[in-house]
Amino acid sequence: MQHKLYVGNLPYSFRNDDLENHFSSFGSVQSAIVLSDRDTGRSKGFGFVEMGSAEEAAAAIKGMNGKEFDGRALVVNEARPQEKRTSGYGNNRY
């Protein structure tokens, strides 16, 4: 198991510090980031947390997946590698 977790269905009021504080009870948090829209600065409702070990990551998944915040049940699981995206602007030329 890797140490990086995907955290979805976050309340839009959540910030990086909130994410770190809630996950720190399961172990050392190496990084915690809530993604936001670059134009508006508004949260996209998901983020990533990197835990210090696989055991801490497993405990965080078990403890936080389905937990409710502001009426929203969090979705917490192992982060998958980002898929390669192609641009729709003609960058796929031969």
UniProtKB/TrEMBL annotation:
Keywords: RNA-binding
Source domain of life: Bacteria
RRM domain residues: 3-81
Protein's UniProt name: RNA-binding protein
RNA-binding listed as a keyword: yes
Any one Gene Ontology molecular-function term assigned to this protein's record: RNA binding
InterPro entries hit by this protein: Nucleotide-bd_a/b_plait_sf (IPR012677), RBD_domain_sf (IPR035979), RNA-binding_reg (IPR050886), RRM2_NsCP33-like (IPR048289), RRM_dom (IPR000504)
